[in-house]
Amino acid sequence: MRLNARPLLTLALGGTLLAAAGAQADRSEWPESFTMGTASQGGTYFVYGSGWANMIADELGLSGGGEVTGGPVQNLALVHTGDIAFGMTTMGPAADAMAGQSPLAPGMVLDNVCAMFPMYETPFSITALASSNITSISEIPDGARIGFGPAGSTSDTYFPAILETLGVDFERRNGGWTDLGGQLQDGLLDVIAFAAGIPIPAVSQLEVQSEVNIIEFNEEELATTLENFPVAEFSIPASTYTTLEEDARAVSMWNFAIAGCDLPEDLVYEATRLTMENNERMQSIHRSAVTTIPENVVHNKVLPFHPGAARWFTENGYEIDPALIR
Q: For residue 24, what pLDDT is reported?
């Protein structure tokens, strides 16, 4: 069944009418509803993913929403099995999944996962209460209780290994970001090691209630981390948090939205189009979406692109290696 143009033209996105391509989409095999896998409440994935799902559902006339998950590693597995249609992941866990090295499915290649569009970089940052007197990574005391986010998340997968490589001795704790922020404030944790898009809601909330230290990597720690892990150098702008007086040195991984490779091409095309053509609306969902722009499609060298997503990018002049199209 094909939709005529008139009903679609009643749907506006930020005051802009849906493009004619949306009216021609073949919806005969579209699901009536969809789920977007995010991460724990209090993190950027949850805010970004839930907002995106609501936008796409509204604009395409579907039922859809975000779902709390364990984050990027679990999202890859859930999309692969078809338990969720869409998800969000970082390039490190994606590379592991494609190599059959996912900690959730050792030995299984998770190859029913396709890239849709670039989201933002995930900085790896460390926060402690100012009262702890921890102002650098080297000052984290032996046996420190460190919260690494949900089990299986990007933060939990990579941050413990990074800190071990930098000589930190710690007790590993897991949980949602909001919960870990509360534990830090209550003295049940010494440090939280975040891997999440900035500003991290849990950190912003902590700043309102307590004095905090946002701890950066020194030059030697940065060089060691870059040498040993699939991350890039990153600078957290001072404007991100009221605590920061100057930019903070960190590392990051790129995030991409993902989709089941067997989803209808027109559905993924429309979801990609709406996202890429409405960056102002995306930024109203979360500030990190300032980098949710087509030019950043080049940062995926790991996952195959869904043919629906690849069609939008190539139609709009963005080159994608044909070998990376499913």
A: 58
